[in-house]
Amino acid sequence: MELYRSHILVCGGTGCVSSDSLKIEERFIDLIEKNDLKNEAKVVKTGCFGLCEAGPIVIVYPEGAFYSQLKVEDVDTIVSEHLVKGRIVTDLLYKESIQEGEMQSINDVGFYKKQERVALRNCGVINPEVIEEYIAYDGYEALGRVLTDMTPEEVIQIVKDSGLRGRGGGGFPTGLKWDFTAKAEGDQKYVACNADEGDPGAFMDRSVLEGDPHVIIESMAIAAYAVGANKGYVYIRAEYPIAVNRLQIAIDQAKDMGLLGENIFDTDFSFDMEIRLGAGAFVCGEETALINSIEGKRGMPRPRPPFPAVKGIFNKPTLLNNVETYANVPQIILRGAEWFSSIGTEKSKGTKVFALGGKINNTGLLEIPMGTTLREAIYDVGGGIPNGKAFKAVQTGGPSGGCIPAAHIDTPIDYDNLIELGSMMGSGGMIVMDEDNCMVDIARFFLDFTVEESCGKCTPCRDGTKRMLEMLDKIAAGTGTVEDLTKLQTLAKTIKNASLCGLGQTAPNPVLSTLHYFMDEYEAHVHEKRCPAGVCKALLNYMVIDEKCKKCGICAAKCPVNCISGTKGKTVYHIDTEQCIKCNACLEACPFDAIKKG
Amino acid sequence: MKELVEKVLTEENFQQLDQQIEKVRGTKGPLMPVLTQAQKIFGCVPYEVQKYVSDELKVPMSDIYGVVTFYSQFSLVPKGEYVVGVCMGTACYVKNAQPILDKISEIIDTKTGETSPDGKFTLEATRCIGACGLAPVITINEDVYGKLDVKDIPGIMKKYQG
What we know:
The complex is a heterodimer.
Chain A: E1 6-11, H1 14-18, H2 21-34, E2 41-46, E3 58-61, E4 65-67, H3 74-85, E5 98-99, E6 102-103, H4 110-113, H5 131-136, H6 141-149, H7 152-162, H8 174-183, E7 190-195, H9 204-211, H10 213-227, E8 231-236, H11 241-256, E9 272-277, H12 287-294, E10 318-322, H13 323-335, H14 337-341, E11 351-358, E12 364-369, H15 374-381, E13 391-396, E14 402-405, H16 415-420, E15 429-434, H17 439-453, H18 459-477, H19 482-498, H20 502-506, H21 509-517, H22 519-526, E16 542-544, H23 554-558, E17 564-565, E18 574-575, H24 585-589, E19 595-597
Parallel strand pairs in A: 1-2, 7-8, 7-10, 8-9, 11-15
Antiparallel strand pairs in A: 1-3, 3-4, 5-6, 11-12, 13-14, 13-15, 16-19, 17-18
Helix pairs in contact in A: 6-10, 6-13, 7-8, 7-10, 9-10, 9-11, 10-13, 17-18, 18-19, 19-21
Chain B: H1 2-8, H2 11-24, H3 31-42, H4 47-57, H5 61-70, E1 82-87, H6 90-93, H7 97-108, E2 121-126, E3 138-140, E4 143-145, H8 153-161
Parallel strand pairs in B: 1-2
Antiparallel strand pairs in B: 1-3, 3-4
């Protein structure tokens, strides 16, 4: 094996790739070649480092220099200064990694300090397209140990003892699920991985698949051994081309090395797996809908029972877990159930990966121990709210979750606490909202999503969510009534109780939680015909702030309906709100910020 | 639209589809993978292609039509030369993706989910593409534009209007 004096880790996650990290990688390879450093420096394309906000990111080891927001031309400087002359380019470093003029370890930076990486441990560390790198980080050791040293019962017992719960949303104990599938009768069984991550604003599973695809293969093989299956399916969204590609590479490599296929590790155990692509239907994240989709049908949920553990894919017993759940398993086998259950809270063990986004400084991917408070996640790891705005709410659980207001920001994050607050863990999306977000509008946004994604099988979800959306539209348009508010609540409860699957049962949550915590905003829309956050277009009024107006007339020139009057250089301008079509053109055009809406 | 569909129904495309069908023949549940490939090859899955798949895989037309219309990745008519996707994931939405969508719709005079009459643009409000660090994001075919403001839109669209 060759040794290098420098390793250049280039983030190859979707976020960084979208901002040209692949060109940066190419430039490094080019310049290293030109400077004759090929035997001294190695470029490694890794999975996501997590801090997407600072992308594209490059880390140079052994110094651990964390370069952020790079442009392709910056690579020239890094190569000539850092790689050739050994001088770290301080100007290009992530600014928080410099303390009193000294570069500190990236693990001491606010964003990483409180994190504990289990599921993401290899993301941003290894090259996901090279199986040897995964193996060097204890990869496939857990599978080896399981196949040669343990009985299926022992494997299930460890997973049970660890307290691991499903990371896809519901939080069902993973060990129990494995046990049910193992005990189900059937000549053929399947294991499947749910990588149909459809929650808007959530990208944990994608990052695991992009950054550490082998962990899913290893874990599914372990699961297959435990439940007695020999075939696995990974169901991935077609919207994740990089993840699909890397997982396919990983599967091919594992087959070449005999880690998938017949008689793995010279035992009787054989296991093979294949990728199935989703085709853009949120409901397919629901397990029975996913099973229908794998079978080549419309992705509509089936009534449960029978549960997939008894009758799953092609009516055979099927174990279905989410990507992040699987990503924890090899570590649990290697380090023991006790180690895993020592992290987290009483009922929620281990860590959880969240995709932090919205009005937050450090947008990105974080993995924190269960029991970390929302405040720690948002302020310590997330770096707080940008532009000095006030925190209003955090939305967890995507379209199935709810909005948690500032009053509950000190709540420790675990499955049960979030449910108690009217939200849920979901797959781990965490969207932060500030004072400029209207909660009626947010509820409407999620309802619009569920209406579109409802599969149409059961009436409460298909028609109920549509009726709710109509009421929210009315409220946002300023024609809502007090009765609408009560009707919304009644209908929401009916939909929760009567829907067939999880999508419908949780669809009203965004409305219920905002009604509960932000009733004042709904009332302002209904009674005062006012949108306090200034979002709902129909309720907006544009006004000139007299003191700020410089009488330049630019606004009047831009107005498409000529409703702004005044005399250039002489009088302050005035907007005729009756005529105004609220197109926002004047506000965008004013060079002095003299126009406000509200 | 009819002419646009006819344009993609070439012999060469059907040959490619044949190869894909052969790859999965005999496996369990081959319909979705075949339709995914068909969408890639033809750029859409119109009636003629559905019929062909139905004959080859011995799956009833009604099932195939049901599947094609259920999933948003399949379309019955070809998409425009440039597919403009405005991410409407939550992270983008709370950072003003809606005004950006409105602006693009205004510039190319095409409603969301539709293709411009000249076949140049298709405007889509897409699900989260996972580039939340760049919110709000739009994609135009393979190009990604992030951290956008409504003001940036006319300049970007100009590049493609040509």
